[in-house]
Design a protein that fits this description.
The protein is mainly alpha-helical. It is built from 2 helices and 2 strands.
């Protein structure tokens, strides 16, 4: 349940930041790039959490990127913002 609350807060913060950025007149692409969080903040690991892994997460961008986590990630990795596809 703790992970769900963290995920909800992260997504709410991202929505607020996107709205504020758009209001300021900055493009959507720039605002999305600024919203990525560090691997450490998202507790990213290079191994799955049971059946939960990046390749079956809605945030995953093939071949090795994420909409939320900054940097290169493993399709077999996992972090706290995992959302089922």
């Amino acid at each position: 349940m703790h992970v769900s609350l963290q995920r909800r807060r992260l997504l709410q913060s991202a929505m607020v930041m996107a709205g504020a950025t758009l209001t300021a007149g900055i493009g959507v692409k720039d605002s999305l790039a600024q919203q990525k969080a560090s691997k450490e903040a998202m507790k990213y690991q290079d191994k799955p959490n049971g059946a939960q892994q990046c390749s079956n997460c809605a945030q995953f961008t093939p071949p090795n990127a994420c909409k939320v986590v900054d940097g290169t990630i493993s399709p077999q990795g996992y972090c706290i913002v995992w959302v089922k596809k």
